[in-house]
Amino acid sequence: MLATDGLSDPYDLDTHPGVGNPGLGCACELIAETTEAIATSDGAGKVAMHWLEWVVWKAADIEAEQRVLYDLTGKFSAVTLQVAACPGLEEFTLPTGFVPLLVGVPAPGIPETFPAPAIDPALLAIKVLRPDEYEHAVALGDRGGVELCQRFVARGDYHLNTSDRPSVLSNPEWKPPVAFPRSAAALEVPFPHELPVVDRTHKRINVGIAVVGDAARDFMRFVHQQTSKNGGDASDDAPNSEVPGVGYFTLQLGAIRGYTTVFHMYGLVDHPGLADITARMLPHVRGLIIAHRGEGLPSGLRSRQPDIPTAVLGSASAREAATRGTDPVLAEALQPEVFFAALKAVARGVLVALRDLDLS
Hints:
Blueprint: E1 2-3, E2 28-34, H1 51-66, H2 69-76, E3 79-84, E4 98-103, E5 122-128, H3 131-140, H4 144-155, E6 160-161, E7 198-199, E8 204-213, H5 216-229, E9 246-256, E10 259-269, H6 275-281, E11 287-292, E12 310-314, H7 317-324, E13 330-331, H8 336-354
Parallel strand pairs: 2-5, 2-6, 8-10, 8-11, 11-12, 12-13
Antiparallel strand pairs: 1-2, 3-4, 4-5, 7-8, 9-10
């Protein structure tokens, strides 16, 4: 196992004047693991750098300069990167002379973050890619990194690096998992990225709102019941209980320049099976509500999320509010009366952000 040490250290403003949030550093450290032996010096002489050491070193150099991996992996889950080639990686080298990497690969048994004063930096696992894998990821665009991760997980080698591994594309029978659990008998749940933000045909603005945590089911049920009871415009379908761990219903709000605003409420109950869905959903929603009794973060969340209106309810609320830099509703006790306050706070922020939509 190799790991960087220092990317998450605060920036020195004398050497990096003008850098934003210097106390966060790069907000991550990079790790890479191999089952191959890595020689170490016994002090008697130099030992040639192992190819994986080279990869981690060059990737760390790029991140120290560009400071982008934390935000990009938060948005896309996994992203590609290229470093200069070195001996031992001839089969992994692109025609351009660079070696492609995948950053953010799932690493079982290794925590996703580690505690630090300002923010919990991410531990991002690196996997060296073969040229065909890299080209496949590029062809798929934003979802390319996630699909490669799904393939590595299905094969069982996850983030591990070996110089003789076959391409993960060599299995023609592999099929990607369904993006969102569905049930034919249950309410059809559109994944947030399937929703057109501006639906000019039906004169609607579609907004995805994620409710995450071990109290997400309570939140969804209460809001749906109260909205329906009070004559609100909630959909007739109760939060979907036939899709394990997922609740879904819609709320119709007031019109914006003739367009009805529809909130698509997604309740993601905290359990390990939904971590990947949560991580992939968040880049596509416009509001986030964390309703969580447990300590720490619900599955699939990091200590810093995309810059969207956020409400935090639960035991970790004060700490999360500080790290997010938002102004959420804070409530240590998850009482029903704070649920609507949280929803209103997020809705207000979302509606403000929607004012600049092109509805012409």
